Task: inverse folding
């Protein structure tokens, strides 16, 4: 078991944490629990400030009581979904809530940890966020093994079964469209990374202007040589940047032609994803399941073709298809 955990951590944890960080920030902006439960706080009336009163020590606020429902994904009613996995909270069993032809997979979470204010605190706890992201992802991976799913973002929480069923009813058309579009397809991630030194070496080798500047530098001394050196460095950076753009465009174009759909994402935070080199491309591709083997071959071919530029391609997946829920720039809820 320890070896399995180590292998998972080396391959999946860095990307999960990077995704989880972005999702957590997004969800905080959307007023976590109010948005999930469809509730908003009323705007306070604007009145003149009251006269100051003597400060009185206030007792600490009581921790919220009761439970909420953490939601993972939506599938068609009757599709096999994991039952033996635990949810994001210790020991919480997975449950299905159905409404007509749709079902949402949920588990119970204590509001003392997952209500709005505790959740705000916990989302600033890196270890808590990593643990929750890992458990959420494990449930989605289990669901993907037997069903087409529409994944729900981290921190999608409903107050009760009625709230979750109401979401299925209100979003039925969009959810059915998404399930149809995703059936028989998988999301795969591709990152293109380069070694900057190798890229600039290739730029030097391909530029006749660089060769001319170096020859002129050899004939100069002092300040003249220094200015030419600065000009050469600037030129090499520009050529290297141009090569990088061409490289990213070529890789993306080849993979996009092969895939059913593609999404370009921002390069990941180096500290979170722990990647080495400069990330030129961070993309997701929706690929027919029957074409996945060929996708692996194509990625290997592209890496070989661009090896002299220090290119390295990382293919990961299959991932829950967050990037390809039709009609939305993000997963529902």
Result:
């Amino acid at each position: 078991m320890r070896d399995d955990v180590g292998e998972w951590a080396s391959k999946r944890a860095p990307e999960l944490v990077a995704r989880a960080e972005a999702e957590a920030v997004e969800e905080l902006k959307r007023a976590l629990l109010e948005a999930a439960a469809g509730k908003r706080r009323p705007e306070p009336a604007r009145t003149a400030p009251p006269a100051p009163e003597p400060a009185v020590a206030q007792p600490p606020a009581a921790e919220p009581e009761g439970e909420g429902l953490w939601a993972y994904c939506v599938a068609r009613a009757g599709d096999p979904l994991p039952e033996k996995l635990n949810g994001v909270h210790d020991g919480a069993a997975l449950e299905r809530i159905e409404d007509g032809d749709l079902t949402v997979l949920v588990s119970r979470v204590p509001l003392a940890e997952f209500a709005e204010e505790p959740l705000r605190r916990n989302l600033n706890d890196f270890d808590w966020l990593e643990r929750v992201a890992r458990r959420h992802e494990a449930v989605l991976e289990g669901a993907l093994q037997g069903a087409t799913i529409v994944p729900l973002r981290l921190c999608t929480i409903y107050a009760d079964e009625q709230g979750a069923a109401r979401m299925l009813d209100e979003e039925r058309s969009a959810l059915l469209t998404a399930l149809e579009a995703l059936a028989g397809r998988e999301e795969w991630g591709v990152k293109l990374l380069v070694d900057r030194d190798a890229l600039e070496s290739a730029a030097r080798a391909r530029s006749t202007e660089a060769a001319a500047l170096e020859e002129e530098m050899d004939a100069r001394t002092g300040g003249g040589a220094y200015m030419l050196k600065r000009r050469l460095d600037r030129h090499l950076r520009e050529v290297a940047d141009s090569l990088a753009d061409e490289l990213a465009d070529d890789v993306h174009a080849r993979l996009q032609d092969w895939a059913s759909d593609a999404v370009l994402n921002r390069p990941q935070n180096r500290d979170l994803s722990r990647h080495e080199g400069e990330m030129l491309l961070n993309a997701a591709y929706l690929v027919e399941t029957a074409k996945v083997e060929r996708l692996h071959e194509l990625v290997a071919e592209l890496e070989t073709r661009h090896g002299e530029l220090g290119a390295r391609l990382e293919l990961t997946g299959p991932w829950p298809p967050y990037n390809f829920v039709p009609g939305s720039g993000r997963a529902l809820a």
Remarks:
- Residues 192 and 281 are 5 Å apart (CA to CA).
- The first strand starts at residue 67 and ends at 76.
- The mean pLDDT is 78.
